[in-house]
C-alpha cells in the first residue's frame, strides 16, 4: 500500500524494503520545503521498524530530483518559513547518514542540486544509463548544501567534484567506466542481486550493524550500465 506524505512524497513497504518516492513530475521531482521533512521522517520510521532491512529513495524515469523547488522556497517570506526549509535539509541528511539500515538512491535522469546532496548522502547510488549528477548552485549565487561537497568528493574524487562545483558541469553516472560509477569490478561481472524491488533496482540482503560497528562512508556510486 502506497502512503501519501507531505511535499509530494510517497512511501511504500514491499517485503523488507521501504521505498520512498519523490513524486513531483510537473517540476521534474523538485523538492518543496515539506519534502525534506517527509523523506527524513520516512527514513527514520523505516529505520525504527525491525522488519525493514533496506530503504530505497527514488524518483521516476525522467529524473531522480531536479533540486529545490525555488518557486516554493522564494515564496517563504518569513524567517520562520526559511528556517523550516533549511532545517528540513539538515533533518533528511541526518536521517539518511545515521540510519542503521542501508539507504539506496535509485536514480534515472537528473540528480541535481539538493537532489545530488540527497543521493550522495545515501550508502549507494544505483544509476541508470540516463542518470547524471550536476551541482548548479553557483548559477544562482549559492554554495552546495546538504554536505554535497564532502560526499560527492568521497564518491567521484576531489578534483572531479571540484570541477562539478566550480563549472556547474554534469557527471554522467551511467557511463560504464566513469570514475566512481562502475558496473564491473576488474573485468569481472558484479554479483547478481538475489532479489529485485521494482524495475532495475537491485537490492542485496542486508544485516543491521552492531552499535560498535563503524558507519560506512556515504555516497558510494554504482551503475547499472553494462
UniProtKB/TrEMBL annotation:
* CDD domains per UniProt: crotonase-like
Q: Where is this region: Disordered?
A: 173-226
> What Gene Ontology terms describe what this protein does at the molecular function level?
catalytic activity
- Listed Pfam families: ECH_1
For bias type Basic and acidic residues, the affected ranges are 176-188
**What InterPro entries is this protein classified in?**
ClpP/crotonase-like_dom_sf, Enoyl-CoA_hydra/iso
Q: Which domain of life is it from?
A: Bacteria
The protein depicted here goes by the name Enoyl-CoA hydratase
Amino acid at each position: 500500500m502506497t502512503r501519501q506524505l507531505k511535499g509530494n512524497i510517497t512511501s511504500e513497504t514491499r517485503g523488507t524494503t521501504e521505498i520512498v518516492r519523490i513524486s513531483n513530475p510537473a517540476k521534474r521531482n523538485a523538492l518543496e520545503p515539506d519534502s525534506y521533512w517527509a523523506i527524513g521522517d520516512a527514513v527514520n520510521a523505516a529505520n525504527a521498524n525491525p522488519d525493514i532491512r533496506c530503504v530505497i529513495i527514488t524518483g521516476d524515469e525522467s529524473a531522480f530530483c531536479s533540486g529545490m523547488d525555488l518557486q516554493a522556497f522564494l515564496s517563504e517570506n518569513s524567517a520562520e518559513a526559511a528556517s523550516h526549509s533549511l532545517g528540513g535539509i539538515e533533518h533528511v541528511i541526518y536521517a539518511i547518514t545515521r540510519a542503521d539500515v542501508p539507504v539506496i538512491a535509485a536514480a534515472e535522469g537528473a540528480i541535481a542540486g539538493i537532489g545530488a546532496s540527497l543521493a550522495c548522502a545515501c550508502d549507494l547510488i544505483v544509476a541508470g544509463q540516463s542518470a547524471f549528477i550536476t551541482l548548479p548552485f553557483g548559477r544562482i549565487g549559492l554554495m552546495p548544501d546538504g554536505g554535497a561537497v564532502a560526499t560527492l568528493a568521497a564518491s567521484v574524487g576531489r578534483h572531479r567534484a571540484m570541477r562539478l562545483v566550480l563549472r556547474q558541469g554534469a557527471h554522467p553516472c551511467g557511463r560504464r567506466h566513469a570514475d566512481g560509477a562502475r558496473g564491473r569490478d576488474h573485468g569481472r561481472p558484479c554479483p547478481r542481486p538475489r532479489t529485485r524491488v521494482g524495475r532495475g533496482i537491485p537490492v542485496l540482503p542486508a544485516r543491521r550493524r552492531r552499535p560498535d560497528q563503524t558507519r560506512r562512508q556515504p555516497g558510494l556510486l554504482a551503475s547499472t550500465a553494462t
